[in-house]
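Reader question, answered in our methods column.
A reader sent in the components of a multi-part assembly and asked whether the whole thing could be modeled at once rather than chain by chain. We filled in our standard form and ran it. Here is what they sent:
COMPLEX SIZE: two components
ENTRIES:
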Amino acid sequence: MSERRGFYSLWLREIKRFIRDRTRLVTSFVQPILWLVIFAAAFATRFIGSLPADLNFRQFLLPGIIGQTILFTAMFMGINVIWDKEFGFMKEVLVSPISRLTIFLGKMVGDSTDAFLQGIIVFVIGIAIGIPINPITLLYTLPILMLISFGLVSIGLTIASFMTNLEGFGAIQTFVNLPLFFLSGALFPLKGGSLPAWLTDVAAFNPLTYGIDALRHVMLGAAWGPIQVQSLWVDIGVIALFDGLMVIVGTWAFTRMK
Amino acid sequence: MPPVIETHQLTKAYNSFKAVDNLNITVEPGEIFGLLGPNGAGKTTTISMLCTILKPTSGSATVNGFDIVKEANMVRKSIGIVFQEPSIDDRLTGRENLYMHANLYGVPASEQTKRIDRVLKLIELEDRADDLLRTYSGGMRRRLELGRGLIHYPKVLFLDEPTVGLDPQTRDHIWKYIRDLKEAHDITVVLTTHYMDEADRLSDRIAIMDYGKIVILGTPPKLKQTLEGDVVVVRANNVDALSELVTKWLGFNQKQIVDGALEITVRNGRFAMPRIMELATQNNIYVESILLREPNLEDVFLHYTGRNIREDTSKELHGIAAARRRQIR
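And here is the structure of the entire assembly that came back:
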């Protein structure tokens, strides 16, 4: 009972902080537009050959940028943990009678909700700038967005729980963000023959690969089938497994946090 | 009534360094118990163990009858803590911080609003309750933290350096709140401080700590009585020479130089004063003034540790740094 309310109040805190942070909301609009407009215009011709005939590059790119936004937001959330440690608020939470599992879950689901909302914002931007994707598919992307967020936020929180300063976290963040992003097939199709084999092999170990693949299944529909990485259900299975694993790791990391 | 806190040979060691060294203390219900000592004496380490934040290396302790290691969760539920450093979320309002705390400590939902309103009234923050914490002054934040520690009706309230980094007027205010809170809620308070006046004015009993050990323990008047005497304060043109002379010829060993004045603790000041004057005149030392006063806690501290607590200024910096950090965010 008290665990449940502890969870709720930790979750609510993250949401309130997110909504009150205007600058973060505004900047969350800018980056995806840059990718979807400038990058798409420059690289469309480079990859168009690997795409099925009924898909254009911007349609292909939108799910990738949604995945990227969630990844970057999720990792960014780790910074909040370091702030909380630095400014003492974490102490108030850690000495309370709430279990570490609840503390981790409250923070993780709260941050995931933020990342999830950012993902929705990018979807809406995509539709708004005229990318031909059926808006109804947003409904199907919601559970996938949430699933992707859980695991990625857990990575950010776990790393942050070991760190004591923001500079160090910033450096590590880059080491995690960029490889996961570049090796996920967010920007280019993994299948379809245009990539060296080692790249596709490495991408198979990246959880984000399956997240973005799942998003493409539901957003692009049958057109995605010919160059899919895995079937939708395999994608979802892999993400769910990864999430479960990361919750265990994250809770362990929070248990040893002082 | 059984004691609220009892420690048996409580020890916290970091490698060979003992931050807390075989500590045995007993805190009675309803008292304000002060742990006084310089920075690094082991006060915060002691409190951290009692609050279950740190695990003792050896020894044991009970808080409200619960073992701090085996029943850590029960201990946590029954205590309130105000940390030395700020621990509130300044992106939330005062009221939101209090609700959050109530939820973390399992206060029944039906009780929360009532308790929070009462606490806000007690700490006189009703009219600012719905403002973001970042707009609060340092003293207001401290009051909110004090009030927050009471929301779940703890039996013991731990205050770690409650007024560090605050201006004198605010400190005065906070002291009044701590006394009021204690009366209103009928709780036991354990506080650490390196301010003599704070320990003196607030505590029912004081334990002076140094190098991880209790040097002496008692009520403030009792501690002062243990010095058995008076303090003679001499201002002269050469206090260093005078200091050597009074030891050599009069046998006074308890002395220190504070703000350019020689302070000598003697058994009977009225008899010592003429001897000191005489000695100064014989040695061509010009005495500007001489006065007699009762010993204070500072003298007690010097007597038992051989050091002046005011030599230690690092905590002061700490307070300023903490205050600055409050502003940055």
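What stands out: Chain B has twelve helices and 15 strands. Residues 312-329 of chain B have pLDDT under 50 and may be disordered.
Send us your own complexes using the same form.
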